[in-house]
Amino acid sequence: MTFTFNNVNSLGSPGGNGTLTVTYHGDLDGSTETFDLEDENNNVLATSLNTPGNQCSAQGTSTFTIPLTDLNNWATDGIIEFETIGASAVSSGICNCNFGGTGASASYSVTMVLNYPTVSGPNDAGVTAVDTSLVTCKGPTDVYANIKNYGNNQLNNVMVNWSVDSVVQTPFLLSSMLDTLNGSGSTDTLLNIGQYDFGQSGVYDVRVWTSMPNGVPDTSNFNDTIDVQIEADMIDLQVAEMTDVSCFGGSDGYVKVTSNGYAPTYIWSSGSTGDSVTNLWAETHLVVANDSVSCPDTLEVVVNEPPLLEVNLLEGGSVP
């Protein structure tokens, strides 16, 4: 079972170590029927928690210290996760005492609570979200980020930096005022920080981070950075078969296309539909493919023709 704590970097910066309280109960014998508690880096925090034995009504509680450095490192993507991994005889599920006799799987349930002290400083800006659609289409796409003032001072300016696949993009300077957490004005704002051309299908790693709020180093770096993945989802449209016009001025050209779309539809510049067209003149033909789950793709296909056949008569000659 995976337990996810979302948007942790939209909270106040941690002022010290945190605690993770794990409450669990179920039919666990404490020897062969155990489970491990792992952090989001797959490090085991504990094994064979004080299992309560074969009583569904029994309950155990363990508390673990989460170091401040781990809180800061894990929260870069805005998410902190913990997971319970059952031993071979354990199935992760809701506690159920009706196991049906010897040899049946044990079962358990777990709840988790993560706590840590927060602290604020004079100049503390952060990123709460990247609001660009996580699935985008081919071409230049606006990238949006939500910036928040966590500090005790009003925020008059902050540099908003960002990168795509570790390539740093042109930063954006926010120069409008954001009020303090206890102020009467707005503490956050949604910004268009720039455009990126997602030119190929695939997953792109986007990072946004703030620096130098009010022209000075940030009080806390806990909420400065957020990482997201944006998928460029587009149809890959290609020519499958093509026959050029056989004679100059003819109209017997043929083109068939194919794509990786789900139940795609095709529309040609001539108005025809379907994945193939016939009786084509020698010219450039445009086809657009679309489906219900991807962005459209456009392809230009050039149908050629042979040159005009010319006959030259020699003086005194004749044509048979």
Describe the protein's architecture and organization.
With 320 residues, this protein is an all-beta fold. Helices cover 2% and strands 50% of the residues. It contains 1 helix and 25 strands. It has one helix at 68-74, and strands at residues 2-6, 13-14, 18-28, 35-39, 44-47, 53-66, 79-86, 90-92, 106-115, 118-119, 125-130, 135-136, 139-149, 158-164, 167-168, 172-174, 188-198, 202-211, 225-232, 237-243, 253-259, 265-268, 276-280, 284-290, 297-302. The strands form 7 sheets. Strands 12, 14, 15, 16, 18 and 19 form a 6-stranded mixed β-sheet that branches. A 4-stranded antiparallel β-sheet has the order 1-7-4-5, with no helix packed on it. The longest helix is centred in the N-terminal third of the chain and has 7 residues, at 68-74. Mean pLDDT is 80; it is low at 88-106.
Radius of gyration: 32 Å
- Tally of contiguous helical segments: 1
Amount of beta strand: over 45%
Coarse shape: elongated
**Spatial separation of the terminal alpha carbons:** 90 Å
Number of strands: 25
Mean pLDDT: 80
Unreliable spans = 88-106
Give the domain tally: 3
Helix content: under 10%
Largest sheet: 6 strands, mixed
What is the ordering of alpha helices and beta strands?
EEEEEEHEEEEEEEEEEEEEEEEEEE
Structural class: mainly beta
Oligomer: single chain
